[in-house]
User: What shape does this take?
Amino acid sequence: MKIILIRHGQTDWNVARRWQGWTDNPLNETGMAQAAALAQRLRHWEIDAIYSSDLQRASVTAAAVAAVKNLPVHTDPVWRERDVGDHAGKTYEEIRRELDAPPGSFLQPNLGETMQQVQDRVVAAYQQLLTKHTTGTIAIFAHGGLIAMLIAYLLDVPVDQNRQFSVGKNTGISVVEVNDGKGRVMQLNDAAHLEPAAQF
Assistant: This one.
């Protein structure tokens, strides 16, 4: 089977580089256009079920694809981004100054969830999905931080070193092929549908 991991479309807080966490921000105009382009790209892909974070930036992105695939969207908070607590709405620089961290450091605030807690949550959800679906192609619409935690698990990368790869493109696609319960990353952070001349 295959699992398609898709980051949500753009929000205004993405543009401002503000940590969103569980804040339920809507897609902006660009994000809606990205979701439409994604739907056009995926209209001929085999997709048997669609799951999504319950936060609207993910679920609205999922709905655009669900409309062309004639599938329901199964929303679940288990696919939410990391809870960043009181740091939600703040920029990297604001948080860095609060934590008195050096420029360029990887911030790990003690509010909300730790990275390990997020990875434990998404791995448990992933494993539960594998028990429910043994064949076919499943699309999951989620968030950059959450997807990074799952990819790190699949690549056997320490959870605090997931910056070795990027899943940060809005509506970026990562594909995992699962054989005998083992996931192999086949595609990572692909947003070719957003290129100016893209046609799918």
About this structure: The first strand starts at residue 2 and ends at 7. The chain has a mean pLDDT of 93.
